[in-house]
Amino acid sequence: VSSLRQGPSPNDPPCTRGHRATTTGFSAAYYSTVSTKYRRNPGRRPSAYLVSKLRRHEALQWRCGPGTPAYRNALEQLKSGESVVSPECRYIVSLPYQGLGNRILAAASAFLYALLTDRVLLIDPSDGMDGLFCEPFPGATWLLPPGFPLQGYTSFTNDTAETYGNMLRNKVIGAGASPPAFAYVYLHSDASADDKSFFWDEGQALLRRVRWLVMRTDNYVVPGLFLADAFRAELDALFPERDAVFHHLGRYLFHPNNHVWGLVARYHDAYLAGAARLVGVQVRVFGAQPNSPELLAQITSCTQKHKLLPEVLATGDPTAAAAAAAASGAKSKLAVLVTSLKPWYQEKLKSMYWEHAASNGEVVVSVHQPSHEEYQRFGVGSHDRKAWAEIYLLSLADELVTTSQSTFGYVAQGLAGVRPWVMYKPDNDHGTAKVPDPPCGQAASMEPCFFAAPNYNLWKKQWLDPSTVVPHVKNCADFPWGGLML
Ligand code: GDP
Q: Looking at ligand 1, which residue's alpha carbon is closest to its atom 11?
């Protein structure tokens, strides 16, 4: 978020002095200044109200976060198992999980919930969230310190007795019952209707009385937060541009730490700087999938149809010599950043632009891919750092082509502030698929999709389509059954 606080020189790498544990942190503005050298799209302007809310939230994290008497006191209360009526500081511990895109969306969702409910946000570091980002809040860590007293909190499931849903069903939480010392909030795709009653006012009224919440999700639950009347006016004031919620939250919260910044800056300076235009192509494939000529055809037809990349001349085309001559003096360099677990798509694109002249001879096309990790890995720091660096590099692109239903792509598009061209999923995913026609379409919004949206209001015992409750919350184009977006 720009216009927050002044930091040191824009040429310094991020996090050098802002790294927490010290009391002299810098706000997100500092990191943003550093990245404007790399980021051409300044992005949307945050509302003045959002900026002031962030300032107040930073003060809350500072006043109540780890290392403060308030935090020690709240931990003691949690250990005692007693509840407290109107405590000064309340907390939400976020357990983001799954791939990095999922984890980033989950952390952003928990942060917005923390903003809306005046809770201190603490991110559980056990899933690798501690080695990737700068600390966002000045003078206070957002990481949950070791020694958190809830036994087994990282592995609670929807069966755990203390989930909000189970406590509601068993009447441990509810009108008349004194609030529990903590509650687990389970918002994964297999969450029950009781769990998902979280999204309505009645659920929020109960949870407001609970000092410690531990939230587990792998989803962008933000569109669901618009369902509670209690939040809607505040959300409207914070985000007058509703399609930019993750854009603002993401640019505020997620800045590569020094190590990852090194990956981003070195790659950018070596391969991407100097291009007149940068096109990012995110090819989400899975480890066991064979290379797919159909997917390659989808990428070329999408990018050429929408003039993101030039068409190429056939070998032997009489105009090729003239095009080649023009290319030798060409001024305009177009860089393509491909990200994928597999190298094959990038190799094919690169060969295509080497072996054939671009039909527009004024453009030279260079194609790059930072890594090809082959398989998604879990709990491997270097793998996550590459993934984060690549998401960030994609977010520097002028235009993006993404794979549908991929949170990796969602994070890149939100940080970039662009509506991507989304490659539609083929009808049949088992190898016999034809290239979808059309191959891609531009997303209606840069917002991520909430895949596991609630479709039942437990309080009213009503099945519903949430898009009929809040008209600007819509079904996702790339996940129409059960997905919601702003
Ligand atoms: P999603 O599964 O597409 O929604 O995206 P996630 O980011 O949540 O999970 C995919 C994970 O696989 C990433 O976090 C990486 O660990 C890995 N991965 C997938 N695609 C890429 C890629 O293009 N580059 C790198 N470095 N890793 C990738």
A: 99
pLDDT at 20: 34
Measured between alpha carbons, how far is 275 from 397 in angstroms, rounded to an integer?
11
Closest-lying ligand 1 atom to the alpha carbon of residue 377: 16
The pLDDT of residue 301:
97
Token couple for 237: 């004031």
d(CA 423, CA 412): 15
**Rounded mean pLDDT of 184-209?**
95
Beta carbon of 404 within 6 Å of any ligand 1 atom: no
Contact 234 CB / ligand 1 (< 6 Å): no
Which runs of consecutive H residues, i.e. helices, occur in 172-257?
A: 193-196, 201-207, 222-225, 229-238, 245-253
**d(C-alpha 14, C-alpha 179), whole Å:** 42
Chain-centroid distance, C-alpha 218: 10
* Predicted interface score ipTM higher than 0.95: yes
CB of 343 within 6 A of ligand 1: the answer is no
Task: Answer yes or no: is the C-beta of 478 below 6 A from any ligand 1 atom.
Answer: no
**Does the structure show a pLDDT above 90 at 486?**
no
329-339 pLDDT, tens digit per residue, is 666 899 999 99
Give CA 383 to chain center in angstroms: 17
Torsion over CA of 414, 415, 418 and 422, rounded to 10 degrees? -50
Task: Locate the ligand 1 atom nearest the alpha carbon of residue 403 and give its number.
Answer: 3
pTM for this predicted structure: 0.93
Instruction: Render pLDDT for 127-139 as a digit per residue (tens, 0 to 9).
Output: 999 999 999 998 8
Q: Which of 344, 408, 413 to mutate to test the pocket of ligand 1 (most atoms within 8 A of CB)?
A: 408
Maximum Cα–Cα distance for the chain, whole Å?
Answer: 84
Which atom of ligand 1 is least distant from the CA of 102?
Answer: 8
CA of 408 to the centre of ligand 1 (A): 6
pLDDT digits (tens, 9 = 90+) for 370-429: 999 999 999 999 999 999 999 999 999 999 999 999 999 999 999 999 999 999 988 765
pLDDT band at 323 (very low <50, low <70, confident <90, very high): low
Q: How many angstroms does the Cα of residue 99 sit away from the middle of ligand 1?
A: 6
Helical ranges in 20-151 per DSSP H: 28-36, 48-64, 69-80, 100-117
